[in-house]
Amino acid sequence: MLLIWQLAALAGLPDYILSPLEILKHFLAALGSRELYVDIAASLGRALPGFAIGSALGIALGLAAGVSRVFDDTLSPVVFLTYPVPKIVLLPIFMLWFGIGDVSKILIIALACFYPVFINAYYGARATHKILVWSGQNMGAGRWRIFRGIVVPSALPQIFAGLRVSLALSFIVMFAAEMINARSGLGHMIRIAENSLRFDLMYVSLLSIAILGYAGDRLLHFIRDKALAWQESAA
């Protein structure tokens, strides 16, 4: 695909479509400037805390709803009712409540990240084999030990699946929030590039987000393999 793109550029493309080699050249040049790292740090400073807060709440409440009928009856209807609502449309409300600074952006990212982790943790806990729970009870294990030693390990594969979706969402929502109202970050860089017709900056920002997202996903996949190594041993 990159080769076809490059050949098409040699044949002639509009000014706003740069060739892969041109994008790479501009990206390498941007790596030598301080501005790119400032924007990357600003974006990560919003995306990662939002991801951590939303995922932590999603895991805790999802597992609780998966093992407790009280939590299930209380949380599940609210979660599944509000899940289809695009979270970025709530940003103006969050900005009224929490100000136009980073707090509102972090919280809207956390809200977006909460749902996929909650749903996966919920169904992961619900999918725990009853025979494992019964075996633990027959061996004298209490509720907390069964939850910690049986339910949580059983739900971990689905929890990590939710975390990978949540991580991607954190970058997507961060990007959208920065394009709406921000004075720094990779989304802000694209808005500046659009206003000044700096197409090179636009592609640099997009490539930076893609690399950061892919690196985060690979790191999460590595942690997943370490955390679930017992599955391979059991198999």
Query: What are the secondary-structure elements, in order, as H or E?
Result: HHHHHHHHHHH
Give the oligomeric state of the chains in this entry, treating copies of one chain as homo and distinct chains as hetero.
Answer: single chain
Biggest sheet descriptor: none
Estimated helix fraction:
over 70%
State the helix count.
11
Structural class: mainly alpha
Shape: elongated
Give start-end ranges of low-pLDDT stretches: none
Radius of gyration equals 22 Å
Strand percent estimate: under 5%
Q: How many angstroms does the end-to-end distance come to?
A: 39 Å
Total beta strands:
0
What attributes characterize this protein structure?
235 residues, mainly alpha, 11 helices, elongated
Would you kindly provide a brief summary of this structure?
Helix content is 83%, strand content 0%.
Describe the model.
The protein is an all-alpha fold and 235 residues long. 83% of the residues lie in helices and 0% in strands. It is built from 11 helices and no strands. It is elongated, with a radius of gyration of 22 Å.
